[in-house]
TrEMBL record, chains A, B:
The keyword Transcription regulation applies. It comes from the Bacteria. InterPro entries: HTH_LacI, LacI/GalR-like_sensor, Lambda_DNA-bd_dom_sf, Peripla_BP_I. Residues 8-62 form the HTH lacI-type domain. The keyword Transcription applies. PANTHER family: ALANINE RACEMASE, LACI-RELATED TRANSCRIPTIONAL REPRESSOR. Residues 317-341 are annotated as: Disordered. Coiled coil: none annotated. Pfam families: LacI, Peripla_BP_3. This is LacI family transcriptional regulator.
Length: 341, 341
DNA sequence: TTCCTAAACTAAAGCGCATTAGTTCACCTC
DNA sequence: GAGGTGAACTAATGCGCTTTAGTTTAGGAA
C-alpha cells in the first residue's frame, strides 16, 4: 500500500499561483473580492491538484460539519429480521447525501449507551443534528437532547411532552382501516399481538386499535411480546387456546405475523383465523397465505425525517421546530390471510 | 430550542486550574509530564464541566479521525428486501464502535457516484479507511483506492488483481455442500438462477457450482437476473418450460428464491422440483415450504470485515494487508424444499 | 557551595481553513 | 490636482487541540 498521499492545502494553491490564501479561499467559496480571472485560475489549479478542503479544518473554523447522526438501540439478535430500519435508513440517507450531508450511524445495546453516544457526538461537535427512534416510556432522550441544544427529530413520534419535533404516522387511520376490513370480512373477536409495552408507539397503536374496535366489536385482547419469534409463537398459542378464541389476529410487525402464522398452521387453525400485519414487507407477499398488511413506505418515512432534520438544522427555531409532520397516510393491502368469512 | 451550549475548551480547563493548556492536554491524554495531583484535578474538572475534545480540532492536529466509511451502491428499489446488508452493517458497526470508531455510511446509485464519494472522503481526510462490497467486472475501485492510498477492505472478495485485501466466503465449499445434498436427495438436473453477470461473486459462485456438479451431474443451466423479483419469476418460468426441465433450482439469494417458489407454485411444479437458496434469512424459514439454504452469518462476516479494516488502518503495511481472510465456513440448512425423491 | 538531573510545567508553533480588518491602486468627480 | 470610491488583494487572527522545544524548580551528588 503506497503511503497516503500528501494532500495539497490551500496554501499550496496560493503559493503556486502567487496569491494569498485569502484570495484562494474567496475564489473557491464563490465570495466577492477576487477578479473573475483569478477565480478561474484558482479553480483550475484546484481541479488539477485534486484539492478539496480538509474537513476537520473547515469544521474547526466554524463551518457546519455537514454531518448528522443516527443512533439505533436494538437487540442485535432480532435485528436484521425487520426490514423497517434498513428502509428508513435508505430513505434518510438519500435525502441527506443529496444535500451534501453525511450520515454517522451507530447501533447500541441500550438507551443508556445511546445517551452516551449522543452526549459524545454533541460534546465533540461531531454532528449538527440527530435522528432518534423508538421512544419509550419515561424516555430520557428528548429532555437530554433539548438540554444539549442538539437538533433532533424523532422518527415515529409524537413525543408526548412535545420536547422534540417528530415525523409521525397516523396510527388511528391505520387501525381504523384494519378493523373495518376485518369486520367487513366477517370477523368479530379481534386480538392484537404487540411489541414491548415500554415502547410508546406500541402503546399508541394498541390504543388506536382498541378505539377503532370500540362500539363495533368486543374489546380486543392484547398480548405483549419482545418482538422475537419465540414470543410471537407463544403469544399466538396462548390466544388461540383461550376459551373465547379470537377469529382474527393482528400482529404489530411482520416478524410476529410470520411466527403467528406458524403457530396457527401448527394448530390447524390457519383456515379459520384471519391474520394481518401492521408492517408490510416482501415476506408478507411471499408467505402462504400472503398476509394482509398495513402499508406505509418506510423509505418515504425516512426521507421525511431527514428533510425535517435538515430544516431544523438550518434554522433551529424556525417553523420546523414546531409541528409534527405526518409522513403519509397509511393504506391497507388486502391479501389472502383475511378472506371473506 | 435553547441555543447550542458553549462547550468548554481545553483553555477553559487550564485557565480555571491556573495551569497551561499543555499541562491539561498531557493530563487528559495520559502522558508523562504532569504530577499525579495535577492530573487528577484536570480530570475532575473535565468531568465536572462535561468536557470532551473537539473532534475537528483533534483530527486537525493529526490525530486519527476515528472514522471509517462504508459506501454501498444499490438500486433503491430492490434494497431492503435482502437482509444481508443490514446484517453486515450491524456486525461491522458493533466491532467499530467497541473500538471507538464511528461509521460514516452512504448509499449511492452507481459505481461512478461511489467513486466520487470515496474520492471526496479521502481528499477531505474524513475517514481512515473504507469498506466496499459487490466487486464488479473491471471494477475501478480497487485501483482507485490503491492510488488514493486509502486503506480499504473488500467485503466478499477476493479481488482478482489482489489490489485490495478482502474478507472472503468459500463459495467452493458452499456449492459443494449444496450440490452434494441435492444429488443425495435424488436430483439429477440442476439449474442456477443467479444475479447480474457483472458482479464477480455471481461469477465465482456459478463457477463453483458448475465445478461441484461436474463429473457427477449434467452441466447445470445458468440464468442471470438483476436480483429483482420480476426477473426471478421470469427466469424460473423459462427454466421450467424448457424441454429438459431441471429437477432442482438453486437461487442466488432469498429474494430470487421466493420469486422462484411463486413461479413453481403457479406452474403446479412445486412438489416435483427441489429449491435451495444461497442466502439464508427469516423468510426461508417462514416460507411454505421452508427453504433449504446455505447459511453464513452476515453479522459475523461484518465483524470480520471491520476487524480486518481496523488492523489495516493501524498498520497499513502490516500483515493484514496481505492474506485474504475467510470469514467462516458456510453450512447448509436442510429444510422442506429439498425432500428425498 | 556548585553543578547536574529529572520532574513539572509553559510558551509557542502548527494543523488547514475562514474571516476581519486592513492596504493598494486604478479610476472618477468636481 | 485634491479627495473620494470601489475593486482586488493581503496580513493577521482565530478555531481547539497536539506537540516540540524550552524554562523553572527541587533534590541529590560532589
Amino acid at each position: 500500500m503506497p503511503p497516503r498521499q500528501h494532500r495539497p492545502t490551500l496554501k499550496d494553491l496560493a503559493t503556486r499561483l502567487g496569491i494569498s490564501e485569502t484570495a484562494a479561499s474567496f475564489a473557491l467559496n464563490g465570495r466577492p473580492g477576487v477578479s473573475e480571472q483569478t477565480r478561474e485560475r484558482v479553480l483550475a489549479l484546484a481541479e488539477e491538484l485534486n484539492w478539496a478542503p480538509n474537513h476537520a479544518a473547515r469544521t474547526l473554523s466554524g463551518i457546519t460539519s455537514m454531518t448528522v447522526g443516527f443512533v439505533l438501540t436494538r437487540d442485535v439478535q432480532e435485528f436484521g429480521m425487520e426490514s423497517f430500519y434498513l428502509r428508513l435508513l435508505t430513505g434518510a440517507q438519500f435525502v441527506l447525501s443529496s444535500r451534501g450531508y453525511a450520515l454517522l450511524f451507530q447501533m447500541t445495546h441500550s438507551v443508556d449507551e445511546e445517551l452516551a453516544v449522543l452526549r459524545r457526538w454533541s460534546k465533540e461537535r461531531r454532528v449538527e443534528g440527530v435522528i432518534i427512534s423508538d421512544l419509550r416510556r419515561a424516555d430520557p432522550r428528548p429532555a437530554f437532547l433539548k438540554e444539549l441544544g442538539l437538533p433532533a427529530v424523532l422518527a415515529g413520534g409524537p413525543d408526548p411532552k412535545r420536547l422534540l419535533p417528530a415525523v409521525t404516522v397516523d396510527d388511528g387511520v391505520a387501525m381504523r382501516l384494519l378493523v373495518e376490513h376485518l369486520q367487513q370480512t366477517g370477523c368479530r373477536r379481534l386480538a392484537y399481538v404487540s411489541g414491548p409495552a415500554e415502547l410508546l408507539h406500541v402503546h399508541r397503536r394498541i390504543g388506536a386499535f382498541r378505539k377503532a374496535a370500540s362500539g363495533v366489536l368486543a374489546d380486543p385482547g392484547v398480548v405483549h411480546t419482545d418482538y422475537s419469534e419465540e414470543q410471537g409463537l407463544a403469544a399466538t398459542r396462548r390466544l388461540i387456546e383461550a376459551d373465547d378464541r379470537p377469529d382474527a389476529l393482528v400482529f404489530d410487525n411482520e416478524v410476529l405475523a410470520v411466527a403467528g402464522v406458524r403457530a396457527l398452521r401448527a394448530a390447524g387453525l390457519l383456515a379459520e383465523i384471519s391474520v394481518a400485519s401492521c408492517e408490510d414487507s416482501a415476506i408478507c407477499v411471499a408467505l402462504q397465505p400472503s398476509l394482509t398488511a398495513v402499508r406505509r413506505d418506510p423509505t418515504v418515512f425516512g426521507e421525511a425525517v431527514a428533510r425535517k432534520l435538515l430544516r431544523l438544522v438550518d434554522s433551529p427555531d424556525g417553523p420546523a421546530a414546531r409541528p409534527d409532520i405526518e409522513a403519509q397516510q397509511p393504506t391497507i393491502v388486502v391479501r389472502e390471510s383475511t378472506p371473506q368469512r
